From TrEMBL:
It comes from the Eukaryota. This is Uncharacterized protein.
Length: 366
C-alpha cells in the first residue's frame, strides 16, 4: 500500500511537471526565423506564410542580395515584387495605413512611370489597360474593357461622363505637327460637377518640366485645395467630409475620392522628347504639353449614363467601333462638346434630367 501510494505520488508529480512545462511553452512566443528567399531570386515570398516579421530593433535583417527587408509585402501590378536597388526602376518609400514601412518599385513594364498606393504597398503602371483608364493622346479603356482613341479637339471641353447626378468634362490641349499635318490632343484638366459643387483637377502648363515641382492644381467651388507634398498626405473637405484628396507621390500624383460615388487617380505628366520622336507629335521647346493620365472608378452610375467613357458602363452598351483596328477610334465628337469645363450642356447630357438627381450623389456620399 505504501509503495502504491508512492507510485501514485510520482505519477501525479510527473503529470504536474508535464502540464507546467506545456503551459510554460505556450506562454513563450516561438523564435523568429526570417522568411526564406527563393534560390533564384524569383517569387521572393515563396514559402513564407505572409506574416510580418516582429520588431527587431537590434537586428538589421537583409535579403541575400543585401537590401533591407520591407516590413510589409510590396506588389507591382498585383503581383509580389520586391525592390531591387540595382535596377534603374523608381523606388518609393512610404507608410501604409497601419504605419508600417512600405518600399515598392515600379515594375519593368513601366520602370519610371507608375503610381503607388501606399495603403496597399502596390505600384501600378499608369497606362495599363484597366477599365476606366485614360492616358496619353487620349486613349480610353471603357467599362467593357475595349481600348479606343477619342481625339476631341484642342482647347475644347468634352463630356466624358454624364449621369443624373454626376457630370465630368475633360479639357483638351493639343499640338499641331506641320510635318505630318496632324493635330494631337491630350486631357489637361477635369471639371467635375456633382450636386451644387464644382471640383477642378488640372495639370499646370510649363515650358520646361521639373520632376520635383508639383504641377497638379485642384479647386473645390473655386477655392484652392492645398495638400502637403508628401506621400500619403491627405486633405478632407470641411464642407463635404466624404470628399478627400490624397497624394500618391510627393508631387504630381493624387487620388481624389468621393465616398460611394467615384475614385479618380490623376498624374500630371509631360510629353517626353522620346515620345514625341516615336509618335511624331512635333513637340517644340515652347511647351512641355503637361497633361493628365487618369484612372476612374465609379460606384453608383445608372444605366442612363452617357459620355465618351460613361456610356461604355451601361448594361445595354453596344460597341459600334471597328474593334478589329489596331486602335479603334470613337467618333461623334460634336455630341460630346460642352461650352465650358463645368458646363453640362453637351448633346448627350443626362445631368439633372431626373428630379432630385442633384441630391442623390450627396446621399450616396453620406
Amino acid at each position: 500500500m505504501a509503495r502504491h501510494g508512492g507510485m501514485a505520488a510520482r505519477v501525479g508529480w510527473c503529470c504536474f511537471l508535464v502540464v507546467a512545462l506545456a503551459l510554460g511553452a505556450m506562454g513563450q512566443p516561438p523564435p523568429y526565423s526570417p522568411p526564406p528567399t527563393h534560390p533564384n531570386g524569383n517569387g521572393p515570398w515563396d514559402g513564407w506564410d505572409g506574416n510580418d516579421p516582429p520588431p527587431t530593433p537590434d537586428i538589421d535583417w537583409k535579403y541575400d542580395d543585401g537590401h533591407p527587408r520591407t516590413e510589409v509585402m510590396s506588389y507591382a501590378n498585383g503581383q509580389p515584387y520586391r525592390a531591387n536597388y540595382n535596377k534603374p526602376n523608381r523606388i518609393f518609400t512610404c507608410q501604409d495605413d497601419f504605419g508600417k514601412k512600405c518600399i515598392a518599385q515600379c515594375p519593368d513594364l513601366c520602370p519610371k512611370s507608375c503610381s503607388i498606393s501606399c495603403s496597399y504597398c502596390e505600384t501600378t503602371c499608369r497606362c495599363v489597360f484597366f477599365p476606366g483608364t485614360s492616358c496619353g493622346d487620349p486613349s480610353f479603356t471603357g467599362g467593357d474593357g475595349v481600348t479606343f482613341y477619342f481625339h476631341g479637339k484642342r482647347d475644347k471641353d468634352f463630356c466624358i461622363v454624364s449621369d443624373s447626378d454626376l457630370h465630368i468634362n475633360a479639357h483638351f490641349i493639343g499640338n499641331h505637327n506641320p510635318v505630318n499635318e496632324r493635330t494631337f490632343t491630350w486631357i489637361q484638366a477635369l471639371g467635375i460637377t456633382f450636386g451644387d459643387h464644382r471640383l477642378y483637377v488640372g495639370a499646370r502648363k510649363v515650358v520646361e518640366w521639373d520632376d520635383d515641382e508639383d504641377h497638379i492644381e485642384i479647386t473645390l467651388d473655386g477655392e484652392p485645395v492645398n495638400i502637403d507634398t508628401a506621400n500619403n498626405a491627405r486633405w478632407v473637405s470641411k464642407v463635404l467630409p466624404d470628399l478627400s484628396v490624397k497624394r500618391t507621390d510627393n508631387v504630381n500624383s493624387v487620388d481624389v475620392d468621393l465616398a460611394g460615388v467615384f475614385s479618380i487617380s490623376a498624374s500630371a505628366v509631360p510629353v517626353s522628347d522620346e515620345d514625341s520622336k516615336i509618335h511624331n507629335y512635333g513637340k517644340t521647346m515652347k511647351d512641355s504639353l503637361v497633361h493628365l493620365d487618369l484612372r476612374f472608378k465609379f460606384h453608383s452610375l445608372t444605366d442612363n449614363v452617357d459620355g465618351v467613357l460613361g456610356k461604355t458602363y451601361r448594361a445595354d452598351y453596344v460597341n459600334k467601333m471597328n474593334v478589329t483596328a489596331k486602335m479603334p477610334i470613337m467618333g461623334g465628337a460634336p455630341k460630346y462638346l460642352s461650352s465650358g469645363i463645368f458646363s453640362t450642356d453637351c448633346a448627350v447630357s443626362k445631368f439633372h434630367r431626373n428630379a432630385g438627381g442633384s441630391q442623390h450623389v450627396l446621399a450616396m456620399a453620406a
